[in-house]
Specification:
Elements (H helix, E strand, L loop, with lengths): L4 E5 L4 H12 L3 E5 L3 H7 L6 E2 L7 H13 L5 E4 L17 H29 L2 E5 L12 H20 L4 E6 L6 H7 L1 H4 L9 H10 L4 E4 L2
Parallel strand pairs: 1-2, 1-4, 2-3, 4-5, 5-6, 6-7
Helix pairs in contact: 3-4, 4-5
Length: about 220
């Protein structure tokens, strides 16, 4: 059987790294990216992955990722996991810095869509899948989370339409729930974040999603 290939963004820590480790153990070939080269290479040690450090909001970096996909002969899975939090401490929308929100939209919405566009021919050819990591903040109203939540709501709707337009590709926008990650700690503090489960806790549900390949749609884990 042909070895499956996955491209995971934001793979140096958190959910991206936990999923990468699980897929590597299952025999997947991995292309991993994150902004920090040192952290990415350290995290990927032993996984046999191709690591390409860079910012997915940078068109030149996306071109490098698309070239790596072609060099690997195609793509079976794209995981858009890289994400920004935005302004901290989390501000109300009445005072949200618009320049920060503009940057956040570029990272959380435009970059995932642009990367999808770049690798979609390979995903079509392999009848692959896209996992866009979302949040409950995309659907619920939490004070202070308006900027971040708006970007995730936009990503959800892009995913929703993409699922209709690309019936040969599975598209899931996934809410993994609250996880003990650096991003959550930055938002709510380390003490509160430490009470949440680690990202590895939701990986089994993600693996079941990939193996079961249900219809495209919004998925709440686990």
């Amino acid at each position: 059987m042909t070895t499956k290939t996955a491209l995971i963004t934001g793979a140096s820590r958190g959910l991206g790294l936990a999923l990468a480790r699980a897929l590597a153990a299952d025999g997947w070939r991995l292309i991993l990216t994150a902004r920090g080269a040192e952290a990415l290479h350290a995290a990927a040690g032993g996984l046999g992955a191709l690591t390409l450090a860079g910012d997915v909001a940078d068109p030149a970096h996306r071109d490098r990722l698309a070239a790596a996909v072609r060099d690997h002969g195609g793509l079976d899975l794209l995981v858009n996991n890289a994400s920004g939090l935005g302004a901290t401490p989390l501000p109300p929308l009445a005072g949200y810095p618009l320049a920060v929100l503009e940057d956040l939209l570029r990272t959380n919405v435009l970059a995932p869509l642009a990367l999808i566009q770049a690798v979609l021919p390979s995903l079509r050819e392999r009848r692959g899948a896209i996992v866009n990591v979302s949040s409950d903040a995309a659907a619920a109203a939490y004070a202070g989370w308006g900027g971040y939540g708006a970007t995730k709501a936009a990503l959800d709707q892009l995913s929703n339409v993409l699922a209709v337009e690309e019936p040969e590709v599975a598209v899931w926008w996934v809410d993994p729930g609250e996880m003990n990650t650096a991003m959550l700690a930055e938002a709510v503090g380390e003490k509160e974040a430490s009470a949440a489960p680690g990202p590895e806790a939701v990986v089994p549900a993600l693996l079941r999603l990939l193996s079961g390949r249900p219809a495209s749609g919004r998925v709440i884990l686990p």
